[in-house]
Write a structure and sequence with these properties.
The chain is built from 18 helices and twelve strands. It is of the alpha/beta class.
């Protein structure tokens, strides 16, 4: 009998823990949310809503956790340490494919990646766009162009490979793709260690300002139309148990997107509090926010098809083993409710 009671007590504790795990981190009206993010410009909506004080006025509190990479955030999501994630679409797909119950409820940006080249490669690609320019550079320098990007399988890496194969008809082996961290990409471009990079803002603006020969060769839409980037993802349990909280999140996302597009100078101050403080002048960040290389949008409908195209390409190329069910990954109902109410 005692053993049976002990078993029942243990089961009760496990169930209680499971129920607690799907609630926001603090008790009381479900106002405290564990929010993960990476301090990069494509996640600007988070910085705006937090720094402008909208989160507090909405009756919410964010317990912010800063991550250095998408895989680290996937691990935190899998361990149920986050309720909300401002995360790249690539890591979000990996998390969902691994069975982590998250939903993309809004997006941050589209087409945020661009290919920027410098020196002789920039000149050759301007004179002979596409495959002819790459061939001319290779012949003149007796080596393949060196192109830096984020690690293999990331969105910038995938966008580069998709552009080469699908838009130019060039095999990726015709260039020397070097995967590295974002700061290393910037340094490699500035020092001339690479000839080009597939990367996002503000690195594009920084390099253009410092390297006279630098030029954007292909923008995100040229590489893959409506190229998905960072997104707002939440746990399914948060949608199920506290839809009002998710509506507030999405409403702030929409509002922050409007500020980024209509009042970039004001938004730059908010973003600067999280990105580049002490390293970048705010004026340069304002320039990056208004660059055509970044298109801020909260509309998740805009990236669904492109996400499927990108995932299918990644699987075919062996960049990932994770096939994604788009119906399981996206939930557009809350965005639709917020924007049509």
């Amino acid at each position: 009998m005692r053993l049976r009671l002990l078993r029942h007590a243990t089961v009760a504790l496990v169930l209680a823990a499971a129920v607690t795990a799907v609630r926001p981190a603090a008790a009381g009206a479900a106002t405290r949310l564990r929010v993960g993010y990476i301090p990069i410009m494509p996640m600007a909506q988070l910085f705006v809503m937090q720094h402008e004080g909208w989160v507090k006025r909405a009756g919410l509190r964010f317990k912010l956790t800063r991550f250095s990479s998408g895989p680290a955030m996937v691990q935190a999501l899998a361990s149920n340490k986050l309720d909300v994630a401002f995360i790249g679409i690539g890591p979000a797909m990996v998390a969902r494919a691994r069975g982590v119950p998250i939903k993309v409820v809004a997006t941050d940006v589209v087409s945020q990646i661009a290919l920027i080249a410098r020196g002789d490669l920039a000149r050759d690609l301007k004179r002979r766009p596409g495959a002819a320019g790459i061939a001319a550079f290779t012949k003149a320098h007796h080596r393949r162009p060196r192109i830096a990007t984020l690690p293999k399988g990331s969105v910038p890496d995938t966008a580069l490979r998709y552009w080469l194969e699908k838009q130019l008809g060039v095999d990726a082996s015709k260039v020397d793709i070097k995967g590295m961290g974002a700061s290393a990409v910037q340094q490699a471009l500035l020092s001339g260690a690479v000839d080009a990079a597939s990367i996002m803002e503000p690195i594009l603006t920084i390099v253009k300002n410092r390297v006279p020969s630098a030029a954007v060769i292909a923008r995100g839409n040229d590489m893959l139309p409506n190229l998905p980037g960072a997104v707002l993802a939440v746990r399914q349990s948060l949608i199920d148990q506290h839809p009002d909280v998710v509506r507030k999140l999405v409403a702030m996302q929409v509002r922050a997107t409007k500020m980024l597009n209509r009042k970039p100078q004001q938004a730059a101050g908010d973003v600067h509090a999280f990105v580049g403080r002490g390293l970048l002048p705010q004026s340069l960040l304002t320039k990056a926010l208004t660059s055509p290389n970044t298109v801020f949008t909260a509309d998740p409908h805009r990236i669904i098809q492109a996400t499927g195209v990108m995932n299918a390409f990644q699987v075919r190329q062996g960049l990932t083993q994770h096939r994604v069910d788009l119906g399981q990954l996206f939930d557009t109902r809350i965005y639709d409710t917020v924007t049509h109410s």
